[in-house]
Amino acid sequence: MTAAIKRNVAPEILRTFAADLLTAGGFTAEQARQTSGLLVWANLRGAESHGVLRIPRYIEMVKLGIINSDAKPAFKTEMGAIAVLDADRAPGAVGMLLAAEKAIKLAGSHGIGWCSARNITHAGAIGYFAQKVAEAGMIGMVMTASKPLMIYFGSSAEGVSTNPLAIAAPTADPDRPIVFDMSTSAAALGKIMAARDAGVAIPEGWGVDASGAGTTDPKAVKSMLPMAGPKGAGLSLMIEIMSSVLIANPIISASLNGTDGAAFNGLVLAVDPVAFGDKAAFRQAVEELAQAIKGLPAAAEHEPVLLPGERGFAEAAKRTQEGIPIASGTLANLVAVATKYSVPIPPSLR
Amino acid sequence: MTAAIKRNVAPEILRTFAADLLTAGGFTAEQARQTSGLLVWANLRGAESHGVLRIPRYIEMVKLGIINSDAKPAFKTEMGAIAVLDADRAPGAVGMLLAAEKAIKLAGSHGIGWCSARNITHAGAIGYFAQKVAEAGMIGMVMTASKPLMIYFGSSAEGVSTNPLAIAAPTADPDRPIVFDMSTSAAALGKIMAARDAGVAIPEGWGVDASGAGTTDPKAVKSMLPMAGPKGAGLSLMIEIMSSVLIANPIISASLNGTDGAAFNGLVLAVDPVAFGDKAAFRQAVEELAQAIKGLPAAAEHEPVLLPGERGFAEAAKRTQEGIPIASGTLANLVAVATKYSVPIPPSLR
Q1: CATH for A69
Q2: ipTM score here?
């Protein structure tokens, strides 16, 4: 194979290859299937930074015992409309999918359902889990919490994570929910890495250098800055309280105090429109809102007004037709894993 | 009285005066009591724009029939952990306090409780309602939705409101919960109005002029811009879906399509730590997180690292001691209302 050429690969082939690599690297078949589903969803939508490029590190994490391939996720607490899952450090997709299923089930019985998931591992693009809830006809809200890696507003130090928040709702088109997915940082780490690779400057407000001063040099970025200053920092802190502190599994305070704590926690809230009225009428009303927004005058010619997640769906439609482009560096890393574990490389990636 | 001099007034006196004015203007005694509690809470915390300066307009809204002083708020839907209140256009504080009480009650039985409130009126500083939930020992999440007044990202037109989100959690100190409260706009309208009054420029990114171009002239601002571009616009849209579309009371689509819709909806989500474990341990764990954040190195000398809502509590402590300063313009407006309705003016405001 030629590592310097970007290859296009059909989603199904990439999904199978990804699952084969993960299985060879220690995941169970089911863990690999769920994880490759999440990763290729991100690749399809143009979010390469949350896609199959993660595979070598995920396999390394199994070897290091950070991801537990023998995980036995179990519900530890169930009361009314809430549940707490201990994911036992299963791959992130496994724990968060279990939490989403549980929240959907609880919402079916109680109108809303909240499932906390403790001891998950890296959850990737959490819009995926919110979309699963929307595909069940409900509103889904998903958050995850992790270790300090973002400047806390008013401090010169990393005090919070870039904790993301995703909210999804079904529309009249079952294949096109609205999927809002944001991190609480000013910019995604992937954008800073992309600027580094491209050798271009980043806007002010994205990151600080080792001295704590703001920088536009992506190579100098030591810490991320929060979205909208106190808003991003504060929201991230509240996500830590809801995801981690509520279930007595703190990440931030443990980390700042130098003691061992959890690495990742998450939660899924599902809201069932059926409890509030008519399911079809709700979908139709979301659709009317979507169309009203789409009908707003565009700020720039030839740039349509987009709903949250719409760019991702458009990209996924394109990539389903044309294949998913895999960057040469990513391909080389995947091929190295395949070679190491004697996993057959699909012809389109050879 | 001399309108040009700023007066300091004791909170209790201002609360009584505010309630007397509202009662004279058509509120029932109980509506006036709840509304003055909300307004003076904002004044205490330094959020003048959400304080007693609203009173003349609130009275006008009663006269115009926008606020219904005969409102009979009633729960229309109750199922499992959810409820829907029709606030019947009661004053905002009345509807949202009922929703908060209901969410707290539901959370006590089901672990979480969600109360939607339809047909509320202007809800003011929604951190107040989130704080009420935290004072009950729970995590509170509050959102409200209103008419388009902010540019939708990617459009040149107002497509969403500045829909706020507040989240509060109890700490070890019952009088000092963490109270996160943000709008989805880049800056509060009050800050733009303050810059206008002070004759100073505003930063780029806060607003656009009548032609749709960004402006730093506060007097030229025609429309607000969203926080962090697509993030603020998208989050505001999802708040409309959760607050309005879910209960078949859409604001944005109705407004953009030129039909009559609701003016304001809101919702309160309460999460009871007791369902997840031990209440005291939760408060203590939030306190540990708070202290860890407070212990971060400050970015600037003599500027302590602050928790969400902490500046407001500090200001409230100060103003409880020294009195609440009332700007001369606000005082003149309140005195005019008092004179019109023969409401006695407290000596400290004469």
Answers
A1: 1.10.1530.10
A2: 0.97
